[in-house]
Write a structure and sequence with these properties.
The complex is a heterodimer. By secondary structure, chain A is mainly alpha-helical. Chain A folds into 2 domains: 139 residues, NADH-ubiquinone/plastoquinone oxidoreductase chain 6, subunit NuoJ (Four Helix Bundle (Hemerythrin (Met), subunit A), Up-down Bundle); 33 residues. Chain A is built from 7 helices and no strands. In chain A, helix 1 packs antiparallel against helix 2 and helix 2 packs antiparallel against helix 3. Chain B has a single domain, classed as Helix Hairpins, CATH 1.10.287. Chain B contains 3 helices and no strands. Chain B starts with 5 loop residues before the first helix and ends in a 13-residue tail after the last helix. The interface between A and B is large, with 83 and 71 residues.
């Protein structure tokens, strides 16, 4: 190699490292039978995707990904695993069904998606965004996206109330006590 | 090695999408099915942010932010439903829950 640039090499090597991490841990989420292993593999997948957001120069989205997914949704899923299994049973395993048809459907969809993305679609890429994304998000939220922003806050409020109402124990039983 | 472009991220998100779909189709535990849904949502978000980067506009980033918010709401409500199902049927095996009432 003539003009070998170590910076570019490291940039690409780290990208492929994270890509392999994402693919392997996502495969473990869906192929490993232990539920706890699935949940902890999901942790690595979410962190890897956060690194991908950094590569796409969307730093704010990366931090949001870590805060919301790793700090919120993953903990929620682990609570779900713990609360919906009898802890006395030693191994938390999930049964598998439809293995062969699902594998065929997965490979067909993957193949068609890759064919469409790589060979059929002709993406017109414009000028790449290279700056940080925090300040533009602030502008967009209070100008173009102010209505979706408010609606989403109402939706979160409704989801909070609804989830608390659904998940509590039977109201009649607790009222009669 | 070629320069990291749009196709790298598209391939990654296609793999994530199909793996999440596989998890939804094969797992019997409802919580693991939810993990598959999270994988699919992440694949969609990755696509949106990638297009936003290579398009130069902010639409994709804003859509992915709203997607993350909706994913949080979805996970909360779905887990509440799963907990309620467990309280009624004593199992979260989606192959066994086939009645609308007890």
């Amino acid at each position: 190699m003539e003009n070998f640039d170590f910076g570019v090499f490291a940039y690409q090597a780290i990208f492929y490292l994270f890509a392999i991490l994402i693919v392997v841990s996502a495969a473990m989420v869906v192929f490993v039978r232990s539920i706890i292993y699935s949940a902890f593999s999901l942790l690595f997948t979410l962190f890897g995707i956060s690194a991908m957001y950094v590569y796409l120069s969307a730093d704010f989205v990366a931090v949001t990904q870590i805060v919301v997914y790793v700090g919120g949704i993953l903990i929620l899923l682990l609570f779900g695993v713990m609360l919906t299994n009898k802890i006395t049973q030693e191994r938390l395993l999930t049964d598998v069904f439809n293995l062969v048809p699902s594998l065929l459907i997965m490979l067909a969809i993957l193949g068609s998606l890759l064919y469409t993305f790589l060979f059929r679609a002709k993406w017109h890429t414009g000028e790449q965004r290279t700056t940080t994304v925090v300040e533009p998000i602030g502008y967009e939220v209070i100008t173009n996206y102010v209505l979706p922003f408010e609606i989403v806050s109402i939706l979160l409020f409704v989801a909070l109330i609804g989830a608390a109402y659904i998940a509590r124990s039977d109201s009649k039983v607790s009222a009669s006590k | 090695m070629p320069e990291i472009g749009l196709n790298h991220f598209l391939v990654l998100s296609a793999i994530l999408f199909s793996l999440g779909l596989f998890g939804i189709m094969t797992r019997r535990n409802a919580v693991v099915v939810l993990m598959g849904v999270e994988l699919i949502l992440n694949a969609a978000n990755l696509n949106l942010v990638a297009f936003s980067k290579f398009n130069g506009t902010m639409s994709g980033v804003m859509f992915s932010m709203f997607g993350i918010i909706l994913a949080a709401a979805e996970a909360a409500v779905a887990l509440a439903i799963v907990l309620n199902i467990y309280a009624r049927f004593k199992t979260v095996d989606i192959g066994e829950i086939d009645t609308m009432r007890e």
